[in-house]
Amino acid sequence: MWFKPATALLKQQIKRGELTIFILAIALAVTSVFSLSGFGERLNQALVAKGSNFLAADRVLSSAHAIDDSILNKVNNYQVNAAQYLSFNSMVFHGDEMLLSFTKAVKGPYPLRGELKISDKALTNDPLDTQGVVKYGPPPQGEVWVSPELLVRFDAVIGDDVEMGDTVLKVTGIVTQEPDGSFSIFNSSPTIFINDVDVAATNIVQPGSRVYYNYLYSGDDDALSDFYQAIKPDLKTNQNWQDIKGEQSPLANSLKRANQFLLLSSLLGIILAATAISVTASRFSQHQLDTVALLKTLGTNDSTIRKIFVFQLTTLALIGMSLGLIAGYALQEGALGLVQHYLPQSLPKDLPGLGFKPLLIAVSTGAICAALFSLTPMLRLFSVPVMRVIKRDMASAPFALWKNGLVFGGAIFALLLTYSQDIVLSLITLTIAAIIALVLSAMAWFIIRMARGKQFSAASPFKLAMASLYQRANQASMQIASIATAIMLMLIVLLLRNELIDEWQNQIPEGTANHFLGNVTPDQVDQIDGLMKKYDVETSDLYPIIRGRVSMINDDKVGGYDSEGNAEDERKRSGRRGFGRELSLTWRDAKPEGNPITQGQWWDESDTTLQVSVESDAAERLEIKIGDTLTTLIGEEVVVATVTSFREVHWRSMRPNFMLIFNRAALGDMPSTYISSFYVDKDQHPLLRDLLRDYPTISLIKIDRLIKQLREIIEQVSLALSYIMFLVMCAAILVLLVQIQASYQQRHQDLVILRTLGAGKKLLQRSIAIEFLISGALAGFIAALTTELALWLIQTFVIEMTWKPHPSLWLLATAVGSIFVALIGTRACKPLTKLPPNELIRNLS
Predict the structure, then answer these.
(1) CB–CB of 217/59 below 8 Å?
(2) pLDDT score at 563
(3) How far apart are CA 362 and CA 428, in angstroms?
(4) DSSP secondary-structure letter at 388?
(5) Rounded to whole angstroms, how far apart are CA atoms 264 and 794?
(6) Residue 561's pLDDT is what?
(7) Residue 37: enclosing H or E segment and its boundaries?
(8) Which of 122, 388, 745, 779 could, after both became Cys, cross-link 484 (CB 3.0–4.6 A)?
(9) ω into residue 111 within 30 of 0, thus cis?
(10) Dmax over Cα atoms in the chain, in whole Å?
(11) Beta-strand pair 167-177/161-164
């Protein structure tokens, strides 16, 4: 009974174009969420997959002793690839020379991720990673692949024999690229690869030997997770399961930061879409009041009316969701295509497919938005009185403001929490939205106060514009709220993008140190300084390194924790428990470059009191104050030093950094080795050859590959965020058009009256332009205010960046907001101002 009139009414309304804006709003919501979540998820998977090259696998299980085969063989029950290698330090001999090496005894198709490149020819001056061919698996039995440093120190060539333990191995390849090469200055012996079956012949590994068993796995995340859950009960506390996201490294931090920003952008897209749907739902309800009143007059019961409009709402939602899914899929495929085209080296060859989660989130978003954001307008629609047919100004009583806010806020929070699965981020985002609502309420009151007493005037377009705002004060404040939200989201994405990229680029500018030098003895310091000057190479200075553990803060004993990478240990990091591990300590006369003092002061070189400077975050976490004393154990020595300053340390910079720096009086007499960092532009720079040949005991670490990977991530995320900026800008424009359409009926009535009273086209066009300029300026000013607050919250509590104010933002946002709104608003209303009075009246009726 109800289906035929519902279908006929829906067709009629679609033909008249009344529901187009509602369909577009639903499509906008689904497009924003589907494209951003799908693009963000696939881009993050691609970033993690590329970053997994640094582990040579998706997951690594490491252990200090062999794991039973009954546990390892469980991998056969899952779609997971496996390989392994045994790592240990061993002496390698060539003629009368010997060298401590880091040995990898490989079994299986190592590496599972990334590329191992081996050259069977002498190296040239070309970059190392462009030489050699990709290999998978170990060298043949009886052969060894070695790092270039070993050949330089031995003055050996390919084809020579080296001795390892009780066996002799032939050098058949040079390692030019190692996916999981160590970047640790304290684990920097030249790497050699042997076959796992040759380990027994060396007789090096004996009971009690210090060896590490590394089990590598790759495959689908679900399969890897299931496999881990299957073996987890059998693992011991000193066996560590890790992936690239769990690594505490510059690459892992960059991946985390990029993922957080993509997630945040998606959350902002959800709020933008919700704003559009809420406004269009109210407008749809308002337009159907007369229809519902007429249906009630004709005897239609409330149940039938509800079925008719629920059917309409459901149909419109399905149409909008379908359009949104198509557009969202096309947008994310286009964006990923751009990334692959402009940055092909920064993505894996096979991009991950679109998962089910973005589709589910997009559909859920469309359904929740259509239902919850239409709830109060639809309830008001169903309760319209029959007398409205005679008296059109009659309508059902509006819902209390707090009820509308509760429904809207609850729906937004549910969407944010479902999507982000992060209650802190969801609360911060919702708090920002609530603050905007409060500020806009105050601004609406301000508008009414300004416009009070203004009358319609045929002589002043400004008075006409102010009177129009006063007449539609509630609607105008909602309009300003939506526009301010759209501008704020654009500003947040733009400013965060720029500051995020700038911060990353500042950390690794051109000329960033790409080599670390370690294990330098005190008598070699002057010689190496002279060698650096000879080749005109600038270094970060040579820092003495002394190992020690903080045992007391004032009179409080502090302890550590068993750091094997599990969540419980991470939780134990907080609180006044000490630093939790042995630290690399140093001493300095002068303050290190890039370590600004945040509290206290640096010591005088001649001061003989024992003093220490503490990294500021560690000082805050451990509640250390200026004037406290730290007791440090260095071997059997006890050093008690007074805290005289806190320093800000940029851990992601490619230079030596320290948690604690002492003065010369405290550690100057302690035995130490030295480390430094420097930049050279060639892999075969003569300085590197001289260092390896003349100083065989030093450690030389190359980090070019890490820097290259970080730069690729920066370029990739920059392009991705440009796409997000474009999408948010398109959404903002649509939201503005939605708001203009929402006031279209009232504006149409005003123009009919004014044109009938003799107002000219130019006067009306000017008044409309001034009205939109005022609305845009107010929205821009409010957007600047809320953007500053939002950036402070996001950068402080979510992305962990240093917040700084943007003075130019206030003027720029106000000016751009007014111009942006005026251009779109006047363009949308232009047809109304051109119509003659009789046509305006005919269209209104």
Answers:
(1) yes
(2) 33
(3) 22
(4) G
(5) 9
(6) 39
(7) helix 20-51
(8) 779
(9) yes
(10) 111
(11) antiparallel
As given in the structure block, the two tokens for residue 820 are: 């942006």
Residue 110: its pLDDT value, please?
A: 93
Q: DSSP letters of 587-625? A: E-SSPPTT--EEEE-PPPTT--S-EEEEEHHHHHHTT--
The helix or strand, by DSSP H or E, that contains position 827, with its residue range, turns out to be: helix 807-834
* Alpha-carbon distances of 37 from 42, 162, 298, 337, 486, rounded to whole Å: 8, 54, 47, 16, 19
18/130 Cα distance (integer angstroms): 62
Place of tokens 């190392």: 128
Q: Which two tokens stand for residue 251?
A: 């690459």
142 Rama sector, left if φ>0, alpha if ψ -120 to 50, beta otherwise: left
**pLDDT tens digits for 631-682?**
998 877 899 999 999 999 877 666 788 999 999 999 988 988 888 888 887 6
Are 162 and 156 in contact by the 8 Å Cβ rule? The answer is yes
Q: Please give the structure tokens belonging to residue 250.
A: 């510059």
Please state, in angstroms and rounded to a whole number, the distance separating the CA atoms of residues 824 and 807.
27
Distance, CA of 689 to CA of 545 (rounded, Å): 24
| 230, containing H or E segment | helix 221-231
CA 244, 250, 256, 258 torsion-angle sign: negative
Give the integer Cα–Cα distance in Å for 273 and 282: 15
Residue 230 — very low, low, confident or very high, per pLDDT cuts 50/70/90? very high
CA–CA separation, 176 and 36 (whole Å): 39
Average pLDDT, the chain: 77
CA distance 780 to 777: 5
Confidence check: pLDDT of 186 > 50: no
Judge contact between 452 and 744, C-beta under 8 A: no
Determine the Cα–Cα distance for residues 629 and 572; give it in Å rounded to an integer: 23
- Residue 177, helix vs strand vs coil: strand
| Residue 730 CA: distances (Å) to CA of 497, 629, 677, 722 | 17, 58, 46, 13
Place of tokens 């730290």: 630
The 3-state DSSP class for residue 241 equals strand
Which pair of tokens denotes residue 1?
Answer: 């009974």
Enclosing H/E stretch for 826? helix 807-834
